[in-house]
Amino acid sequence: MSTKKQLLAQYDLHDVLFTNVIKDISDAESNQVIADPLNCVKWIAGHLLWANSNLANISGVQVEVKWRGHFHTKQGGSAEDFNAPPSPLPTLDEIRDKWNHDTVITRKGLENLPEEALNKVIDRKHPIQPFDNTLAGLWAFINDHQAYHIGQIGIIRRALGKEAMSYFRS
């Protein structure tokens, strides 16, 4: 299986897991911080949506996240993130709906990337080694990032008294 097919398989898995991990969590529950200094489900879900927009960018498609100012980090934020106009905080349902919309567009862009484009050295550094500074390395890092945060929501989900996340599409 090619590098791109492996990365796409991970992307598809994260799409299923994101949907499943936030399933049956109310907006009120998504705002709960179960222990300081943990983030709440809503922030983590929004952060995953923000990171997904970075995958859209590297795939050559554009998606707009109107709440980007809420969900970036100091390390990963861009000038666009830091200068985003103020916006109301979305509901968890709005984040989920935007995720469902954007993942279709993003996946198509990723699928259409030529295999040789994955070896292109990029200017943007990412924080984790041994991923190299190629487009494939950045994509692999973002996939790892998504898995990490989906796992965080999974732990919070259980702390909220919810059933464990399913690995299967509902």
Automatic annotation (TrEMBL):
Q: What positions does the domain DinB-like occupy?
A: 17-153
Q: What is this protein called?
A: DinB family protein
